[in-house]
Amino acid sequence: MSAPAGSYAPAVSRALRVLALLEAAGGGTLGVSEMARQLGVARSSLHNVCLALEAEGVVQRSEGGYRLGRRLVELGGAYLRTVDPVQAFYQACSDTSFLHNEICQLAVLDGTDVLYLAAHAGRLPLRMTASIGSRFPASITAVGNALLAQLDDDELRQRFEDPATRPAWTASSITDLDALIDKIRDTRGRGHALDEGEVFPGIRGLAVAVAPQYSGEQAYAVGASLLEVYCNAHIEQQAVEALSAMAAHIANPMNLGTGSAFVDA
After folding, report:
1. Span 88-122, pLDDT tens digits
2. Where does the HTH iclR-type domain start and stop, copy by copy (predicted)?
3. Is 194 inside any structural domain?
4. Structural domain containing residue 54
5. Which of 32, 41, 69, 99 is the most buried (most CB within 10 A)?
6. Backbone angles phi, psi at 112, to 5 degrees
7. How many domains does the chain have?
């Protein structure tokens, strides 16, 4: 596999193909001869490419050949620092066929409330009151429950001691403190949060937490609001999978993370 026809810099294209081969090796090593064979190029020219990559630290040589180098970690980290969670959220909503049609939210926890940082309207005939900058009680929202699942039970009990922090917006809203803690425990065990008409009657909310990239980073959650009348186990599973993929993309656009973060109480 030679450099693409019309390549502006054939040597650069060849170097990137070397990196792709080493990535596919899954942490193993590849010799110059083997890479030259797979790429369909002369061993001598590829040897020079590998020497240049080694000099820059993006590959390292070992007894069995070459493997990816530590410099790639630094470059990847620099890229991750440029990623805006809001931008990543909207990109995921646009790129995911399931979420593109649904009402979705990106939120953070602020005390006993959630604050919406981004909202995707979807294509459903619904007009939800949640918009960018809106605050909702964390106790009854799916995104709130996903974020609360990262706290231990003692922290939950202290934070929600005041009954005013556990409002009833619908007949389904859970307002009892012990019941709220039980619900958050269920969220941890399930791996995603569930709002069964606690905010809006007839609306089923699903959410997952976004795993932080580093200690101390602001915690996020992504959620989707579905019409209960159209919701079944298959659709709910689709929603959870799509939200988990979105969370993984926001947490790490290079798909190195799991996308969901819960703690054991």
Report:
1. 899 889 888 888 888 999 999 999 999 999 999 88
2. 9-70
3. yes
4. 10-78
5. 99
6. -105, 10
7. 2
What is the length of the chain? Answer: 265
Tell me which residue of 257, 217, 222 sits closest to 81, measured CA to CA.
217
Taking 70 as the pLDDT cut, the residues of the chain under it are: 1-8, 79-83, 124-130, 213-216, 253-265
- Establish how many alpha carbons lie within 13 A of residue 141's alpha carbon, considering only the half-sphere containing its beta carbon: 29
Assess whether 48 and 138 both reside in one domain.
Answer: no
Q: What CATH number is given to the structural domain containing 71?
A: 1.10.10.10
| C-beta pairs of 31-34 under 8 Å, 24+ apart in sequence | 31/64, 31/65, 31/66, 32/65, 32/66, 34/65
Tokens of 211: 């795993």
Residues 6+ apart with CB under 8 A from 93: 99, 100, 104, 120, 246
- One domain, residues 209 and 170: yes
Q: Among all chains, which residue has been given the structure tokens 């020219």?
A: 45
Torsion-angle region of 251 (φ positive above 0: left; ψ -120 to 50: alpha; else: beta): alpha
Q: How far apart are CA 69 and CA 56, in angstroms?
A: 9
Q: How far is CA 102 from the centre of its chain?
A: 17
pTM of the complete model beyond 0.90: no
**Edge-to-edge strand order for the sheet containing 103-110?**
135-137, 113-120, 103-110, 220-227, 203-210, 193-196
Nearest-CA neighbor of 144 among 93, 204, 184, 186? 184
pLDDT of residue 260: 44
State the sign of the Cα–Cα–Cα–Cα dihedral 35, 40, 44, 47. negative
